[in-house]
Amino acid sequence: MSPDFYFFILLIIAILTVMLITEIRQRYQFRKSIKQHLKHKDIYDDIERPYAFYDTYFKVFEVLTTKKQNTSRWIDDKTWSDLNMNHVFHSLNYTYTSIGENHLYHVLRLQSSLTHFSLWEEIKHDETLHHRLVTLLAKLGKQIYPKYDWSHYQHRFHSIYYLFSLLPLLSIGIMFFHVPIGIFAFLFSLLLNYVVSLRFKHYVERDIDSLFFTGRVIYTLKELKKLPLSFSFKSDLSALNHVNRWRFLLLKVTTLPGYFVLMVKYTFLIDIHLYHLLIKRFKENQETIHACYRYIGELDSLLAIEQWRYHHGGCTTPTHHDNFKFSRLTHPLIEDAVPNDFVFKQNVLLTGSNASGKSTFMKAIAVNLILAQAANTVTAEHFQYQPGIIKTTMANADDVLSGDSYFMAEIKSLKRLLAIDSQLTHYYFIDEIFKGTNTAERVAASTSALTYLAQYPQLKVFAATHDIELTYQLNSIYHNCHFNETIEKDRIHFDYTLKEGPANTRNALELIRLMKFPNEIYTDAKKRVQRFEAAKKTSPDS
């Protein structure tokens, strides 16, 4: 044989060797990264991807289910925004897969609790199980985000594709009778099918990625079923396994052999036929596929919460009880937060100076209620509660686009609280009620609104205000609590500790002084406050 032949053989062997070594090295690095991750329990995949739609499952959930949904317990957009829940979600997001990421967001918004918390004990006592579970999920990864709704997948199949697929074979047959015509027909069929394939790929490329990902999900489920987990996957995958084994043909080309396979696929329109075969089979079995998503999402979300608990030493598991109380509660987003204890006996009116901790305290309670209902986790030493509806009206603002003023935005937000489900417990958190109007109307409207809410025994209301007048007006139906501060050596100090009774300090004028406003502003304002207080004491309505 000629030297060129041997050179060609050696070249092929060298290419295959490099490919094999690269594959072995990548697998070794992957296993090493998993071991390192589990040792230190850091976020495994913290890359911010521009296509990371972690709320897709939540947004399409009503379309996916045929059951009538009780949406009253869902966390509405206003409450989610008021509580900075996007930040809370991202701090919890130790998930390994895009499905888990979507599922975690979904259970937080819908308050549909994770259930199989026994997994935490299983992986704690079986390191090998933990490693195998994380490895399978990490391989699935977050490179692709599923659509969930199969009705969005495009169907572009036409019966003429059958003829196009046969043209190259027919052209080869013609060569036996007339070589030039056969060659021309073969080249024409190649050009035609390449154009058809490229055009088809342009329209459905994202769908192909999602189909391939769905195939990987099914494969991952088969491997997960082999693990000794306490809760197993119940649905039958046999209808999907047969067609799923061909999904590898949709894989994107990254190697030289892959380009050869691509030429064959384009020649016979294999991608088009396989795409529609998978679409048809997956649509017929979409309930099974959604069950796969839910199972992986549950596993991944549980692992994420367990890891978050590991990083937050103050976490515990809440208990259900008719009485609402907690001890050493903190806000999960605040480092070195001051813990607070509380026993709910009646609706609460919170007073206190600016920046003393009223809003943060209410947010800490509300966020922990959401975490308790969705993830059986709170940042407290002890937490007992009755599951229910959580709503807030806090960070109100005027809306330029809708034309709503601050006050209009506020009353729209408050009106949401009047939709009361008599069968469920409600937790309402109201900050600076009717702030957007004058003092007289604010006190009157606030008194009336809070009195109205107090007549419902299933409501647990936390309201914060600067209007001390409300502490007298509502003293019989609202429990007065406050936060305060001390000023020493021209420095203001907040202890962020909840105290009994109405607030007994004010700091607005002192802050003006400490910020070095002209002294005449401070002294004049102080005199006006003294005159106002004296006049109020002599008033017949006081």
From TrEMBL:
Signal sequence coordinates: none
Key word Glycoprotein present: no
Domain annotation DNA mismatch repair proteins mutS family: ranges: 345-530
Membrane-traversing stretches: 6-24, 160-192, 256-278
Record key words, sorted: ATP-binding, DNA-binding, Membrane, Nucleotide-binding, Transmembrane, Transmembrane helix
Entries under InterPro entries matching the protein: DNA_mismatch_repair_MutS_C (IPR000432), MutS (IPR045076), P-loop_NTPase (IPR027417)
Gene3D superfamilies documented for this protein: P-loop containing nucleotide triphosphate hydrolases
Keyword Transmembrane helix appears in the UniProt entry: yes
PANTHER family reported for this sequence: DNA MISMATCH REPAIR PROTEIN, DNA MISMATCH REPAIR PROTEIN MUTS FAMILY MEMBER
Entry protein name: DNA mismatch repair protein MutS
